[in-house]
């Protein structure tokens, strides 16, 4: 728990907000998928988002890097307003790394090429430098010996760690995770969570959709519960788990913790 | 006295385990049905092949100055022999055909250089795509460095067929990719232009397009602004083929999972970067069979240029069939045409299979 305390201390020093949702609303046709989302995330904060399937968790975090467009309200990332301005979107995407449920590695490129693609083309980094950096991150996710293989030759857990390293290669200020362990076999979940915990300890701002409640308890600064497009409750982990305020949260927790 | 040691040869493995007999047994006579199929096939081959060999080789006449000299009762290959140069180069002047040969040798050498590891592949590709065509054009057309000018109306035969095919293929490929991207784009203008273009071209037969290119367009162009017929035909063929290519490539684009687009977007790649670096390489690999299919059919379709008075390989053969010295050699002509087309198309198909194997790094998609 000392890690969490240290992180809190850091947080209290730098109180700057890095992501801000103001009255964000989104519709898919008639379907109101995000309802009045008001939420802000501070630099270095670790947020876990949970909630029943279809409650809009993915949609919300995908609004942070404009994979989804919101229709009402405003989203500020790192002080930049998210709108149709391509420059803004590009600037934000450079600062936000994302890890998907199904890894989404590029199957026609080697692991190393997957990692160096964005640094070379988006950050305009020389190839050699990009490769050195990629190897550095691959070592951190303990997979450097696979650098020249193709994604299809790796296990799911290894692929997801590569995906994390690929996100880090952009040297982002924020990392988004959308159910990073849900597509993995149980024995591979731990290796991915360990990588994420390590990242959290280094002070990365993280927004993580996951149902790994153990991860939420150890790592999160706040847990956000969503249901039917709304943020029902957001609280520090021990408050959230020991003393949930809303019936819906209680019901969700009883379902997820009892099976 | 030294005793000479002569090792006796080792015995062959028992013929029932390896060797031709075992192979036959495993592959051709493994079950009653297979025995029947094998015997049936042998019978069919027996019916067809010996007469062809007899006609095409044993009783064939290889040399001669007219059909009348072909008296052996078999094929009259003398016809092909006499007309060979025309079939290959059309009416290109005899003493200048080395220029075509040189261009062919050049491109073979250039493409062969891909096998050399030390060479920069991008540089080589650009040389082939940008510099070579200019060199080839001046070799063919002349007019520079003291090369005699050869009007495009004299270009013909297999030379013209390959030229139309290769230019059509090389030019329609990027155009098709652009159209495919356009048709899937969110921009209304790009989308509707691509859609209308593709659907219009696909609704019209190639003959019509060639006819328009060579006969109608000049009618609309102002006096004096008339450009080369070969060029017009090349443009027609390219546009025609690119519409089909676009649909093949679009099929590949549609098969790429949404997650690939999203991952590329999330890393901040621009639209063009994400298409060129991430999406197209995967999509094109998926549709290699369809692309090659289009190429093969384009290669054969080019023969329709006879409709606008150009004499490609087949056109030259048909024209030669009317030579009064060689009346009655139609079968030989078409047999030769079939053989040459087969070599080219079979070659393309084998190449595409090799390419697919090479690009398949054995990874599943996700
Ligand atoms: N492109 C889309 N078009 C229409 N409805 C969608 C689309 N994407 C998601 N939805 C709907 O929006 C709701 C929220 O989806 P999502 O954010 O993926 O939920 P979660 O990640 O919480 O499971 C779901 O009911 C889903 O069916
Ligand atoms: Mg989801």
Automatic annotation (TrEMBL), chain A:
Signal sequence region: none
Domain ABC transporter, first and last residues per copy: 19-253
Keywords of this entry: Amino-acid transport, ATP-binding, Nucleotide-binding, Transport
GO MF annotation terms: ABC-type amino acid transporter activity; ATP binding; ATP hydrolysis activity
GO cellular component, one term: plasma membrane
One Pfam family, short name: ABC_tran
UniProt-listed InterPro entries: AAA+_ATPase, ABC_ATPase_HisP-typ, ABC_transporter-like_ATP-bd, ABC_transporter-like_CS, MetN_ABC_transporter-like, P-loop_NTPase
Entry membrane topology: Peripheral membrane protein
Family named by the database record: Belongs to the ABC transporter superfamily.
Protein name: Amino acid ABC transporter ATP-binding protein (PAAT family)
Automatic annotation (TrEMBL), chain B:
Segments crossing the lipid bilayer: 33-53, 98-116, 123-145, 157-182, 203-221, 233-253, 274-296, 334-355
Gene3D superfamilies for the chain: MetI-like
Keyword annotations: Amino-acid transport, Cell membrane, Membrane, Transmembrane, Transmembrane helix, Transport
Record domain ABC transmembrane type-1: where: 158-352
Organism: Marinomonas pollencensis
Protein's UniProt name: Amino acid ABC transporter membrane protein 2 (PAAT family)
Mode of membrane association: Multi-pass membrane protein
UniProt GO BP: amino acid transport
Entry similarity comment: Belongs to the binding-protein-dependent transport system permease family. HisMQ subfamily.
InterPro entries linked to this entry: AA_ABC_transptr_permease_3TM (IPR010065), ArtM/GltK/GlnP/TcyL/YhdX-like (IPR043429), MetI-like (IPR000515), MetI-like_sf (IPR035906)
UniProt GO MF annotations: transmembrane transporter activity
Compartment(s): Cell inner membrane; Cell membrane
Pfam families referenced in this protein's UniProt entry, alphabetically: BPD_transp_1
Coarse class of the protein's main subcellular location: membrane
Highest rank taxon of the organism: Bacteria
GO CC term, one of those recorded: ATP-binding cassette (ABC) transporter complex
